[in-house]
Amino acid sequence: MKEKIITSFKRVCKLGWRNFSREGGLSFVAVFVLVVTISLTTSLFFLQDIAGIVMEEVERRADITIDFNLAVSEEKIFELKEEIAKEFDINGMEYISREEVKDDFVDRYGDRPAVMESLEEVGNPFPASLNIRADDAFVYTQTANFVESNYPEMVYNIDFYQRKDIIEGIFSATESARRGGIIVSVILGLIAIILVYNTTKLAIYGLKEEIRVMRLVGSSNFFIQGSFIIQGLLMGFFAALISFLLFLFFTFLAPQTYNITLGIDLHQYFLQNISTIVLLQFAVGIVLGTFSSIIATSRYLKI
């Protein structure tokens, strides 16, 4: 009995491979879409640390600066800093003194005698400032309104109002990127299911006479259906294998500048999470391929 089951399984696998290779063009297209779907899914769920670093870097540039009047003491600025930290959900604040601003100016324009002479005449015209970073554009609005309403005598300028549209645009773009990645992944998954489904359907119609003969000689529905399910499984398996090799190749050859910019070694990150990534890729590929074939055979394998 056991040998009979093993023999039947081997025949099912052999027939499934034949179906897969026979529909070469359609199988290639289905595998290609599955590769894109698996790759995008892998990027979304297992490279989110990298995506998070990139998003944080973009959002880090979306900050606001409060410039204070020259007469405002550092003590009052630090008191305001503490109050802002208590009132709002702030990621970080950096106080920049008048001397630091002047030193930075000298570093940038020290090779221009005329500029340096003018600076010596006027002294230090640069205001102290407070640089604020947050995770939400609305926090910036609240903070700017709070400071302007309660401490107008301290404030020389708040650059949020000049940069409001840009800041809100950055946060909107990063959020749209996150949502867009998920939506694209779902759409590609549906396209992959449809392609595998149609590939299996055409294979069933192409083998119409052969299926009838198989039924006449006593082949069970499980045996016939199994061959097409194996076909879908093979599509998912090869798509997952290709995706894995592409990720391995890309992370290995990724320029070192990417690693420096992102603050993470892509190849090392991939190797550290290789078991999870492999599991996800093969699970997504095989489930999509097999599920599509099961639906197609359930509907069309009544010939």
Q: If you had to describe this structure to a student in words, what would you say it looks like?
A:
The protein folds into two domains: 2-56 and 171-300, no CATH class; 70-153, Alpha-Beta Plaits (2-Layer Sandwich). The longest helix has 47 residues, at 160-206. 78% of the residues lie in helices and 7% in strands. The chain has helices spanning 2-22, 24-46, 48-60, 74-87, 98-109, 113-122, 137-150, 160-206, 208-216, 221-253, 256-262, 266-272, 274-300, and strands at residues 63-68, 92-96, 129-133, 155-158. It has a four-stranded antiparallel beta sheet. The chain contains 13 helices and four strands. The mean pLDDT is 76. The protein is of the alpha+beta class and 303 residues long. Helix 7 packs antiparallel against helix 8. The radius of gyration is 31 Å and the shape is elongated.
Question: How would you concisely characterize the structure shown here?
Answer:
By secondary structure, the chain is of the alpha+beta class.
